[in-house]
Design brief:
Length: 243
């Protein structure tokens, strides 16, 4: 079966790839999946066709997901937690010159917007956990652990202006949540404490109000221009170009 256009782009045009999930967070245990994330650059000439290249691709490997560079930058500028964390993974699998420049831009994506996006995502997860309790008598403890991890990350980002995704010395306590060794009341108390600490940190955070959109856009334009100047015919299989 022929590769799809998306899989060809991921295979041949990935500029940055990393491992995310529990392994990147320092929460891996026996049997943990290896979640791979990446960024690819669709050749500029593909945008001259009516059918545009995909903004994201699932696969071709198991547990692999990739974004096209422009989509990635757009979401990261909005302080999407998944994208910002991807840029700060301690487990980088590959990065070419473009990928390394993207990593050098990590600080340009960070802003006070992260306060609302991180906590907004946490609020959505809390609603799902409470629905689990109503329907099944208890929450999904793994999801509770990751909600707490996200709130810790948000608090520390607001405090320091730097995003660190490895949980460090919080590993044991977080894993005890995953195993269901804390009561739901204890977990909720921890959540409230983290929110209060984030509230305090937000009043004196070193983060700028907004990301440096101009710097990121300059990077994106240079990548597009370089791609256009390199070749007018993308190096893709003929069948993939018409997928």
């Amino acid at each position: 079966m022929r590769d799809s256009l998306g899989h060809t782009l991921v295979r041949d045009h990935t500029v940055y790839a990393c491992v995310m999930g529990s392994r990147a967070f320092g929460l891996a245990t026996d049997g943990s999946d290896t979640d791979r994330r990446g960024v690819f650059v669709a050749p500029t000439a593909l945008y001259w066709h009516f059918d545009k290249p995909p903004t994201h691709v699932t696969g071709p490997r198991d547990e692999q997901f990739s974004w096209e560079l422009e989509r990635f930058c757009t979401l990261a500028l909005r302080a999407n937690p998944n994208l910002l964390e991807c840029l700060h993974s301690p487990l980088v699998e590959s990065a070419d010159d473009t990928g390394r420049e993207l990593l050098d831009l990590r600080g340009a994506f960070l802003s006070r917007r992260a306060d609302s996006t991180f906590r907004g995502y946490a609020a959505q997860q809390l609603s799902k956990l409470e629905a689990d309790i109503r329907n099944h008598g208890e929450p999904r403890w793994k999801h509770a652990m990751h909600l707490l991890r996200l709130l810790i990350s948000c608090r520390d980002l607001l405090r320091t202006g730097r995003l660190t995704i490895d949980v460090g010395d919080q590993r044991d306590r977080l894993l005890s949540v995953k195993r269901g060794e804390l009561t739901w009341d204890e977990v909720r108390t921890w959540m409230r404490t983290l929110h209060e600490e984030a509230d305090t940190a937000a009043t004196r955070t070193p983060l700028p109000a907004d990301p440096d959109t101009a710097r990121v856009e300059d990077f994106l334009l240079r990548v597009r221009r370089t791609s256009a100047a390199t070749t007018l015919t993308p190096a893709l299989p003929q069948q993939a170009q018409h997928a």
